[in-house]
Amino acid sequence: MNKSLLTVDNLTIGFPNTHQTLTHVVRNVSMQVQAGARIGIVGESGCGKSTLAQALLGAIRGSGVRVDGTVTYAGESIFALPADRLQRLRGAEIALVPQNAGQSLAPHHTVFQQIAEVLDIHLRVRGDEAWRRTVALLTEMRVHNPEHVARRYPHQLSGGQQQRVALAMALAGQPKVLVLDEPTTGLDVTTQAALLALLNDLTHDARMAMVLVSHDLGIIAHTCQHIVVMYAGEIVETGHTEQVFRQPHHPYTQGLIAAMPQITTARLPHAMPGQVWSGASSQQCAFRERCAWAQPMCATAPVLEFVETTHAVRCHRWQDVLTARAECDQAEESHQAHLTPKQDDAIPVLELRQVSASYQQPAWRWWVRTPAKLVVTQVDIAVHRGQTCAVVGESGSGKSTLARVVTGLHQPLHGGVYLAQDLLSTEVSRRHQAERRRIQLVFQNPDLSLNPQHTVSEILYRPQAVFFGRTRAEAHPHTVAMLQHMRLDESYLARLPRQLSGGEKQRVAIARAFLADPEVVVCDEVVSALDVSVQAALLRLLVEIQQLRGTAYLFISHDLAVVRAIAHTVVVLFAGQVCEQGPTESVFARPSHPYTMMLLSAVLTVPQRDFQSPLVHHLDAGAVSAGGCPLRQRCPIALPQKCADVEPPWQQSAEGHVFRCHHSPQVLAEYRNQLFLPATERSMP
Amino acid sequence: MQADTPLRATYPKWKHRFSLSAWAGIVLLLLHLLMALCAPWLAPYSPTAIDPDGAYQSPSFTHVFGTDRYGRDIFSRVMYGGQVALVISVISAVLSVLIGGALGIGVAFVGGFIDETIMRVIDAMISIPSILLLLVIVTGLGTGTAVIIFAMVLSYMPGVVRVIRATALEYVPRDFVLAARMRGERARHIVWVELWPNVLEVVLVEFAMRASWIVLAVSGLSFLGFGVNPPTPDWGLMVNENRAVLVLSPWGTIFPMIAVATLVVSLNVVSDEIARMFGVDRGVRR
């Protein structure tokens, strides 16, 4: 092993809190970053990952913050460096790609100005040479048309491009250590796959070390050699990625892995109870409250124990945990029970027929009015009682517009929404009260969907008053029963949304929808903003209620693994057009449309038993093409003439789902085999 | 979820710690209110009682603030003057904040053509210098308390509309408003139950701020002779009446000025404190 480039030694960071004490966000963390190493730091939100990442650059500021321990770079303590040395170190030696690149780029500087500033400060490169290097960097980041992009402002770029620009900026100073904080959050799966492939290549070539902070185990598993699992500010497990995933020793690591939905099997992920308590003390095991293995001895703090030379775990009972896991594996239950429909009603409870929708400026703003561009084109969807129909697609594919059309918040251009064969009005205010009650919507972000000034009791009372005319006294037992169903107790009634955690807020939002006793619930990305363990709990909850009440879900999501876990049927949207639709099982097992294949191949899952080398597939977001097949610019097997001119026809696959493509099923099957070659036969780039 | 999981730190508003300057402001404001409300009992003389022999007296034990050119007791007149200032400014501020607030939330919620039209009219009203607008109204409609209040509301309401509309616009596109629409709630419910509690904090800050500006504007108008009619004690009027003898007997000017200044400062300090209490970011004041 090489000499360590960056060494973190017994680092503890405490932030002052309202009780005049310190909340230790990072506790006794020691780690080493060797040249060329790829280290992943993983954990739920509130585990101190980002704070640790910032500490690597010596960027811990604020009054009353207490930092113990050291971060050493090339033999010098970073915290002891004078400001000018520190500035030269940042960017030239250690660079950070901050979370949410779009917000970290200066909005009134062009891409070139921002990168040139880094070049000027760290390499003394100016003028034409700076321009040349900027374009070279952007080219290296696989930005399309780099000269054009360099002259743009950040807001004129897509999320993926912004992320690449931020990466180019971080790499401009030719750092030896690159720290990435959640680099792919908010990006589409295909964009994410492309970006991670790029990162892989960069660290291969440049012998640059990389520290990647993420909540997503899939990303870490596919990009990093070494993994650090953090819980409540402590390292609970660390080791080679392969070791940790093959044999997770710590209950928390196991819980995280079990909470990840799998693309390969239709099982519901396992939830972990509770949430991260950042105020945990070092006196006891921080995970104790949530741990199924907790025993009295866990009241003393466990130490980081080496189980192999490179694999360490902080748990008193890791041996017991490990043996039990082996037994549990054999008894793996079949989790597909929830996906077998009880009875197949012939009449779908919700039906969309030939729905097209567009966004347009209102008529009175004639001076900015442009012709309508379709965001949803001729979509047919049928959802049956007690079933879940998932709509998947990248951002901008028209998923959310569909949700708005169904709920009457957006008027479609053509087509109609039918509730049990009755045509609904396109405008929610013109629907009957009963129709409004029967279709409920759960929004993506509970911070926006719950009124910050209303208590939980108020939020849950209102739908009952409107739909059932209940008084507060009459509504109370219903409210409490629903809260209990959501695993929340009566004490939550008096709380305001800001006093709830993210998962609790979403539970309240779901409770509000179900208090109307709906037949159809439209779920718009309901679990995307949540940590995996919370996400798993909510998915289970949704399935439970569905089985109890026979509610139909229109489940809108960009996460294919989640869709696999809970959906009976799936609709794949690209640029507002349906590419492929049918039973989830058959679509996911044998996708027929090239776009579905691309999406599926870009999903990064956590390898469970057989550890595969990462699937590196170069996909990139390109322009959506008008006329013909919308996918043709991104499709690797597009026919030059036919795909551009003729709209692809509907075809039926052997497995019983339908798709739209010019290619024959044989050609598509061949392409599929090529794409999903077993890992052993695929050569790494 | 465990019961012992600590909630995220919340700062209950009623546990707010007032700063020293805030306390000073509150005490000053209460003092002003007390003086104005209790003037009939506390004032040593009638504010309109003329004493031709005792004109232009300096402060003494009999006349604490001295007397003016008609020998009227300045202390009593300052006390009664506070009544006029407070009544006019509180009524005008309440009206402009209520009307402006309702209009602001309304147009933010309705949006579209109506919003656009009303806001352009509001822009036009804001572009007229307020003192000019006040003078035009007062010269057109004559003086008197009702006219002054009308003028104040007309010149300060547009600013309130803008601020409240901007605040409401932050909440209108939020999903809870959509959720209310999907329940089939009436516009009235959405505006008053869903949106109003969210803008209330800004409304309170606006109220305190506008009140202090209106105090200044009312005094300014009276000083120019467009305010309340002469025998009525009023601070601006008092300053104006004493203008000619400023060097000989400054008392008739100094004390009403101190009254105006302390009232405005106390209102400013209190409005700042309300803003800080609710965490409303008001930015730089104009």
Protein model, in words:
The complex is a heterodimer of chains A (685) and B (286). Chain A is α/β, with parallel strands linked by helices. Chain A is 34% helix and 21% strand. The relative contact order of chain A is 0.09. Chain B is mainly α and 286 residues long. Chain B has helices spanning 20-37, 39-42, 74-110, 112-127, 130-141, 145-171, 175-182, 187-223, 235-241, 251-278. The longest helix of chain B is centred in the first third of the chain and has 37 residues, at 74-110. Chain B is elongated, with a radius of gyration of 23 Å. Chain A binds chain B through residues 17-18, 273-275, 277, 279, 289, 362, 364, 407-409, 428-429, 431, 433, 436, 440-441, 443, 445, 448-454, 462-463, 466-467, 487-488, 491, 498-499, 501, 504, 512, 516, and chain B through 1-11, 112-113, 116, 174-176, 178-185, 194, 197-198.
Quick summary of this structure?
The complex is a heterodimer of chains A (685) and B (286). Chain A is an alpha/beta fold. In chain A, 34% of the residues lie in helices and 21% in strands.
Give a count of the beta strands of chain A, DSSP E runs of length 2 or more. 24
The unreliable regions of chain B are: 1-13, 281-286
Roughly how much helix do the residues of chain A carry, as a percent range?
A: 25-40%
Beta strand count of chain B: 0
Rg of chain B, Å, rounded: 23 Å
**Alpha-beta content class of chain A:** alpha/beta
Shape of chain B: elongated
Query: Helical amount among residues of chain B, as a percent range?
Result: 55-70%
Mean pLDDT of chain B: 80
* Sheet of most strands of chain B: none
Strand order of the largest sheet of chain A: 6-7-8-3-9-10-12-11
CA distance, first residue to last residue of chain A: 24 Å
Dominant shape of chain A: globular
Spans of chain A of at least 5 consecutive residues whose pLDDT stays below 50 are 608-619, 679-685
The computed structural class of chain B is mainly alpha
Oligomeric grouping of the chains: heterodimer
Biggest interface: chains and residue counts? A-B, 42 and 28 residues
Termini Cα gap of chain B: 48 Å
Q: What about the largest sheet of chain A?
A: 8 strands, mixed
Mean pLDDT of chain A: 83
